[in-house]
């Protein structure tokens, strides 16, 4: 079974440029997460989807970040315009059940460097 | 809100040494507790979990016991190997973290031969 696939693995852009990250979750997983991981820190939730619906986006900086999960499968996270402080690893995760009984499956992440 | 605090790192040990990584949490209600591990170049993966007080999670020689009285979930291993070198994250779900994981800051473990 394929795991969570993210692309690109690495992205270097100049500030004020746009950037987009793509995530393909494990087949059949209805819940999808985007997490932000700063250097030396634990991941922090940006947004959680149940199928196509964003059920928790309270930590997503909506002035520059947007996300979508069309058809309840793949998801895209966009930043426009990027700022220096956005340099981090963006993690995608998915699960088919509740966290009490299941687990999150993470992709390898997309590392963003903003110059 | 919920929070997780891990011991200051990094931790450096010799092979076959005993490992403890401390984790304490603040949460409402009865959260589930997890340890995730991130090996170099790989994504985060679940190491072990415990869903109620006094439960012990175990996997790959690692153990952690859910202690409600001390709000702790310390990770232990009796004899570490070089292959255990990784970053370890304590996390919880439930209460105000319903449906999501709240992570600690991570502890880097390096094991030397």
Rg of chain B from C-alpha positions? 13 Å
Beta-strand proportion of chain B: over 45%
Secondary-structure content class of chain A? mainly beta
- What structural class should be given to the helix and strand makeup of chain B? mainly beta
Low-confidence parts of chain A, pLDDT < 50 over ≥5 residues?
none
Largest interface: A-B, 26 and 23 residues
State the order of secondary-structure elements of chain A, H for helix, E for strand.
EEEEEEEEEEE
Instruction: Give me the count of strands of chain B.
Output: 12
Helix content of chain B: under 10%
Rounded radius of gyration of chain A (Å): 13 Å
Termini of chain A, distance in Å?
37 Å
* Overall number of strands of chain A: 11
Distance between the termini of chain B: 41 Å
| Fraction of helical residues of chain A | under 10%
Shape estimate of chain B: globular
Overall pLDDT of chain A, averaged? 92
- Give me the oligomer status: heterodimer
How would you characterize the largest beta sheet of chain B? 6 strands, mixed
Order of helices and strands of chain B: EEEEEEEEEEEE
Q: Average pLDDT value of chain B?
A: 93
């Amino acid at each position: 079974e394929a795991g969570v696939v993210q692309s690109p693995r690495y992205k270097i852009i100049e500030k004020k440029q746009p950037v987009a990250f793509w995530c393909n979750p494990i087949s059949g997983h209805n819940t999808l997460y985007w997490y932000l991981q700063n250097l030396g820190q634990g991941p922090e939730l940006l947004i959680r989807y149940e199928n196509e619906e964003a059920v928790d986006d309270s930590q997503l900086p909506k002035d520059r970040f947007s996300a979508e999960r069309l058809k309840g499968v793949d998801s895209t996270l966009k930043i426009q315009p990027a700022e220096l402080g956005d340099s981090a690893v963006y993690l995608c995760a998915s699960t088919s059940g509740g966290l009490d009984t299941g687990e999150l499956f993470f992709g390898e992440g997309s590392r963003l460097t903003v110059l | 809100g919920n929070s997780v605090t891990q011991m200051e790192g990094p931790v450096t040990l010799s092979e076959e040494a005993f490992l403890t990584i401390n984790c304490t949490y603040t949460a409402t209600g009865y959260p589930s507790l997890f340890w995730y591990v991130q090996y170099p170049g790989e994504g985060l993966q679940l190491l072990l979990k415990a869903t109620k007080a006094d439960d012990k999670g175990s996997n790959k020689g690692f153990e952690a016991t859910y202690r409600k009285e001390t709000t702790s979930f310390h990770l232990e291993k009796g004899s570490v190997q070089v292959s255990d070198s990784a970053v370890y994250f304590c996390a919880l779900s439930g209460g105000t973290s319903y449906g999501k994981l709240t992570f600690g800051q991570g502890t880097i473990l390096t094991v030397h031969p």
